[in-house]
Amino acid sequence: MPRRATPTGPNRASTNRAKSRRGGVQDQVLRRLRTGLMVGAFVPGQVMSLRKVAASLGTSPMPVREALTYLVTANALEEMPNRSVRVPRLSDSRLAELFQIREMLEGLAAKMACERVTPDLIARLEATNRELINAIAKRDILGCLTTNQKFHFALYQASESETLMPLIESLWLQCGPTMYFSLLSPSMPWDASAHTEILAGLRAGKPSVVQRALARDVRTTAKNLLGGAVERGLNGPLMRSIAEMDAFF
């Protein structure tokens, strides 16, 4: 049987460029979906339509399919018997466990960040916290979710820990979709006060203050969600529409 010719010269270069473009698109799609899950742009039980996600991202279904497959293996999404993919609905016990682990790992990352704090980090966190406070005042749920994740990850990345960051990202991929429900209460339970305490601890160079404030932030959200916010969100009239998902992209 004749062997297939290997591209050479200009043909080989063209093939390599095409592969590079495909890889770049796949990475971009995965990055956007990961961020969407972590900030709560997708909610528990939401089916991830291949066609709609691809249209929102302006790409073909293939890189979306590969990204969804990866996220299923990462326990961020689940495959249904009919082969569709959806955001998991977590039990209270599973959610409580995730938040407990979050408190431990993120507290350690925050402590390490405090030990490496710089004026630039404080300035960036202050600016992000102002964005969050403005989003809360406007009841901009997507703005709250996005700036909250931005604040936390800027803090944790300052720990410079190559071990902690992948673990923290994995936890946010799993519990991030529930965060939307923590903001559905008419009282708008977020107030960014824990972030203000974190900033005070960073300015004073006191890791214990930063850790305590971080723990309060995580526990407050967990208490709200486990106190019925998830159940009310899943069964209430305020479930997110696909138009809101499009707004994230």
CATH first level of the largest domain: Mainly Alpha
* Count of discrete domains: 2
Uncertain runs are: 13-20, 237-243
Q: What topology, given as strand order, has the largest sheet?
A: 1-2
Q: What does the main sheet amount to? A: 2 strands, antiparallel
* Cα gyration radius (Å): 20 Å
Total number of helical segments?
10
Shape: globular
CATH topology of the largest domain: Four Helix Bundle (Hemerythrin (Met), subunit A)
Structure description:
- The longest helix has 31 residues, at 9-39.
- Residues 13-20 and 237-243 have low confidence and may be disordered.
- The chain is globular.
- It is 69% helix and 2% strand.
- It has 249 residues and is mostly helical.
- The protein has helices at 9-39, 50-57, 61-73, 92-115, 119-137, 141-157, 164-175, 193-204, 207-235, 242-248, and strands spanning 78-79, 85-86.
- Strands 1-2 form a two-stranded antiparallel sheet.
- It folds into 2 domains: 9-39 and 47-86, Arc Repressor Mutant, subunit A, CATH 1.10.10; 92-248, GntR ligand-binding domain-like (Four Helix Bundle (Hemerythrin (Met), subunit A), Up-down Bundle).
- It has 10 helices and 2 strands.
